[in-house]
Amino acid sequence: MKQFHHFKAKYPDAVLFFRMGDFYETFYEDAEICARVLGLALTSRNKNSDSPIPLAGLPFHAVDGYLKKMIQAGYKVAVCEQVEDPKKAKGIVARAVVRVVTPGTILEESILDEKAGSYILSMFFQPMTDLVGLAFIDISTGDFRVTQVPIDNNLNQILSELNRISPREILIPETLYREYKGGGSEILLQLENFFSPFFSFAEDWAFERSNSEFQIKRMFNLSTIDGFGISDLPLGLCAAGALLKYLEDTQKQVLKHIKKIARYNLSQFMFIDIYTQTNLELTKTITDGRKKNSLLWVLDNTKTSMGGRLLKEWVERPLLDLESIRRRQSAISELLEHPSELRRVREELSEISDIERIIGRLSANLALPKDLIALRNSLKHLPEMISSLEKLDTELFRDLLSKVNPLLPETDAIFSLIENAIDEPPANNIREGGIFKPGYSSELDELRKIADGGRDYLKSLEERERRRTGINKLRVSFNKVFGYFIEVTKAQAENVPEDYIRKQTLVNTERFFTEELKNFEDKVLGARERIFELEFELFTGFRDLLITKIEILHEISQFYSETDSIQSLAQVAKSNNYSRPRVTSDPGIYIKDGRHPVIEIQALGEPFIPNDTRLDEEEQILIITGPNMAGKSTYLRQTALLVLMAQIGSYIPASKAEIGLVDRIFTRIGAADNIVMGQSTFMVEMTETANILNNATDKSLIILDEIGRGTSTFDGLSIAWAIVEYLH
Quick one: what percent of the chain has pLDDT higher than 90? Predict the structure, then answer.
């Protein structure tokens, strides 16, 4: 209990899972929390004393499921392990907190969403500045990015970017956290209103520039940070350094798969504010927050988790660079023109595992033999994938192949390394042996011969003892409860030699052992124990060897994920009869026979009727009228979705289209109030409209699905009229 109190004092804001043998035990308030959240039986330690200690335990082998429930319920968990062999311990077994699991630092495969990133975000801003620094990492993949976002009047850019990132956890300075808990900090209160985020904090000094530069240099073993190009993002840099310090404190190790910091600017992508992301249902629906019936649901025909995550990012970040858009379109076109290669690529990708997250588990020393088998199988399909793509003449695939082709000798070596080492089916527990194939280690092979019971030795011992005793039915046997023994019938028990020592009496037989057999048993059981130790040592060394190959594996994962995202768009275009839009830098939108991508594939009993759209400098504004259920909202959203799809680089549901690059899409849709924040339906509508009027440019696409409600007819019409004239 002294040990428990020591670790609990170091992690007061976490529930402490305290390892005791085959269980993690929790005590005091932690036990009461776990009993309530996990449905565990609440018992007590020192029951007969005046102050019994609440106690709740969970089996260590099922910890992943319990961690998932704790994280979903909004708790941090500090995992305290036994760090020495209990059999060799002199006194109380040494323990240490080996990891603090938080919503943003999850690595367990069973807890993660396979086709969505799992980000922890660090946020830093200073008084009198109009910028906020953002740094975020997906520790399951090593994706690490930094930016700075303007603080506008309604925090629209910050809210929109956070909605896109969807962080599981937000790290802020301690002073700001205390202010927020006291009811202050407008930015954090706004975030809470939109997202219900999980906030964590680090000491203020962790966000200082000097500490941040030190953390980044140490993490990447650099003498300067200039190579990352983030020196002119001071707030983002401070957020990044604090985040690295926090990860080191919670993970208790350096995560070797985080290899770089990627800088990005919001100006690289089409700006889609939080209202538009929601109203257009890009990645989830408004009604139930699920992927089904969203745009991503239509476009996602990926075969790998990695490809699914990348495609989601493409949908959330449409491009503003014509060359990049056309590269993706050309790659889709090549696949559509070579249907046999598209089919082969899809077949090969269906055999690929989530290499990105296997790398993450390797780096955190959490990878299991099954992960290595999955990695081996994924590398096995690389030559076939390369062969298929080499038949396609397009810049995007040529660039991908130029990066991955030189790595083939290395990937072949990694494949052979795993193939020659890891046995199948893969062991589930790395401390119970059965990991390595025969021939991998001569010492291991020798121990296995002994542990297998030395069948030849036992047979010869049995024959010797039969001759020595004259008992023809004497048997040398083994069972898990009593170990090795010599068995004779009751009738022959009087004829055994004096050196036989009685072990067990049964109804019809007597069991004995000899010093020789006892020595053999000790040797066998000792061999089994040593096998477990040796295989664990060999496996940790094997993982360390693979960690040195992380950069190669990361390149392979990027190759697979980008290929998968492109083939997904090609397959959807083929299945749904999409065409290639012409995307230009000239203003205007012309769509012939456009269809709503989501609605047209619904089984609604009627075919979707295509319709045209034309917007140019002469006709900048279309006013759509009609009765309820006439399809006005569908038509408006359809236009926005087709423009967005074109700038992803996707084909679109239309017979023909020419689309000028759009820098932003704005929507003002639906009737909603925000009574908690003191805003009526009319106030919400006017706030959203003001955001559009203040931020739209002559290259923006604006959708206003009814304006001027919540007030009198003439006032509402006057407002709508004035807005249209102003936009024109």
Answer: 63
| Per-residue pLDDT tens digits for 579-595 | 999 999 999 999 999 99
Task: Sort 289 into a burial class: Cβ within 10 Å, 0-12 / 13-18 / 19+.
Answer: exposed
Q: Tell me how crowded residue 33 is: count the other CB atoms within 10 A of its CB.
A: 18
What six digits make up the tokens of 61? 């082998």
Identify the sign of the CA torsion 74, 75, 76, 82. negative
Residue with token string 């295509």: 610
Q: Is the pLDDT of residue 677 over 80?
A: no
CB 616 within 8 A of CB 588: yes
Cα–Cα distance between 494 and 465 in angstroms, integer?
15
**Which residues are bridge partners to 479 per DSSP?**
483
Contact of 131 with 239, CB cutoff 8 Å: no
Pair 513, 496: CB distance under 8 Å: no
Answer yes or no: are the C-beta atoms of 107 and 139 closer than 8 Å. yes
Task: Decide: helix, strand or coil at residue 538.
Answer: helix
- Per-residue model confidence as pLDDT tens digits over 104-152: 998 888 788 888 999 999 999 887 788 999 999 999 999 999 999 988 7
Residue 465 pLDDT class (50, 70, 90 cuts): very high
How far separated are the first and last CA of the chain, in Å rounded? Answer: 73
Element (H, E) at 144: strand 143-150
Rounded average pLDDT over 495-518: 91
What is the spatial distance between Cα 323 and Cα 649, in angstroms, rounded to a whole number?
10
Angle between helices 339-349 and 550-576 (to 10 degrees): 130
For residue 240, give every residue at least 6 positions away whose Cβ sits within 8 Å of its Cβ, in sequence order, or none: 122, 133, 135, 144, 146, 212, 215, 216, 230, 261
User: Quick check: 517 and 461 in contact, CB under 8 A?
Assistant: yes
Question: Which residue has 């004239």 as its token pair?
Answer: 725
How far is Cα 305 from Cα 267, in angstroms, rounded to an integer?
Answer: 28
What does residue 261 show for φ and ψ, rounded to 5 degrees? -110, 125
Alpha carbons 645 and 314: distance in angstroms, whole number = 9
Phi and psi (nearest 5°) for 138? -100, 100
Q: Report CA torsion sign: 83, 33, 114, 353.
A: positive
Q: Given CA atoms 62, 65, 68, 73 in this order, what sign does their dihedral have?
A: negative
